[in-house]
UniProtKB/TrEMBL annotation:
Protein name: LacI family DNA-binding transcriptional regulator
Keyword Isomerase: no
Keywords tagged on the record: DNA-binding, Transcription, Transcription regulation
The organism of origin for this protein: Cryptosporangium phraense
SMART domains named among the record's database cross-references: HTH_LACI (SM00354)
Gene Ontology molecular functions: DNA-binding transcription factor activity; transcription cis-regulatory region binding
Length: 331
């Protein structure tokens, strides 16, 4: 189907003449404008002309946990888009229970000749895992970037959301609303982001502050919240948005309401949580900025200008919606 110049021009925000130049592979168009026109073609469902269907510059592996948690597809999309704009093709490898392990995926990707690998919340986030697997990849001159879960013994660039800041923002918000008994529902203790969240939570609220470790799932959030509410908590901070949705369900199962009786805060700002009932107050991971940075770090490695082998920390943002309200002492 031949694209209509007017439709593509409107979608890309450029003139029909510019669209014509891109479709005919003419000079005089900036890379950003050319990419905008190509993206408009894809969005409108038009096939790209054969002259624009260029060969990939190479394959990049992208290993993520299960895609049930919407934050992982969000990372995958940003990273894939960033790589595509630079001519690379992302090979998405998703781990599922009982399926291939991270190590198995890594070996398959190496066999396929990938130019580098991005790991999202992989074994590097597990403080009990052997992180030498990543140093062995570095020793093979394979560029890697690791997202969320810093390990100081790994010679690679890391990209992380500031988990400590996320807890500070959440606690500050709840305290300002008048909550005095605040609980924390997070994942297993062995994960680095969990350890960071817990350390600041205890620092702010004391060693006896109520904390429940569970699974990063709706069911895990439900169980943890029920326990915290039974301990008298009027607000629950959760390790991700799925857990927060489970916490809201737990409140309702107890015959109470959110936020009138219990306030709930998530973490991630996953797609659609602004449309839940009530809309979820959460701490937004800066996924676009983190994904873009990870791509740039990997490309720098590939181009022979590697950056520091350290952690780059990105600030999250508290997004206040309808799941938090006044605590008991201010009602």
């Amino acid at each position: 189907m031949s694209p209509r110049l007017a439709d593509v021009a409107v979608k890309a925000g450029v003139s029909e003449a510019t669209v014509s130049r891109v479709l005919n592979d003419k000079a005089g168009v900036s890379p950003a404008t050319r990419q905008a026109v190509l993206a408009a073609l894809d969005i409108l469902g038009y096939e790209r002309p054969a002259r624009l269907q260029q060969r990939s510059a190479g394959l990049i592996g992208l290993i993520t946990p299960e895609l049930d948690n919407p934050i992982f597809p969000a990372f995958a999309q940003i990273i894939e888009q960033g790589l595509s704009m630079q001519g690379f093709t992302a090979v998405l490898c998703t781990q599922v229970p009982g399926g291939m392990t991270e190590d198995a995926f890594t070996e398959v990707l190496i066999e396929r000749g990938v130019a580098g690998i991005v790991f999202v919340s992989g074994l590097h986030a597990d403080s009990t895992a052997d992180v030498e697997r990543y140093n062995r990849l570095a020793a093979r001159q394979l560029p890697i970037v690791l997202i969320n879960g810093y390990q100081p013994g790994v010679a690679a660039p890391f990209v992380s959301a500031d988990d400590r800041a996320a807890i500070r923002q959440s606690v500050s918000h709840l305290v300002s609303l008048g909550h005095e008994k605040i609980g924390l529902a997070v994942g297993p203790r062995r994960f680095v982001p969990v350890q960071r969240k817990v350390s600041v939570f205890v620092e702010l609220l004391g060693a006896d502050a109520p904390i429940e470790h569970t699974f990063f799932t709706v069911e895990g959030g439900h169980a943890a919240a029920a326990t915290l509410i039974a301990q008298g908590c009027t607000a629950v901070i959760c390790g991700n948005d799925l857990m927060a949705l489970g916490a809201i369900r737990a409140v309702r199962d107890l015959g109470r309401s959110v936020p009138a009786d219990v306030s709930v805060i998530g973490f991630d700002d996953s797609p659609l949580v602004g449309f839940t009932d009530p809309p979820l107050t959460t701490v937004r991971q800066p996924v676009p900025a983190m994904g873009t940075a990870a791509v740039q770090m990997l490309l720098d490695e590939l181009h022979g200008v590697p950056g520091p082998k350290s952690e780059f920390v990105f600030q999250p943002e508290l997004v206040v919606r309808g799941s938090t309200g006044s605590g008991p002492r201010v009602r």
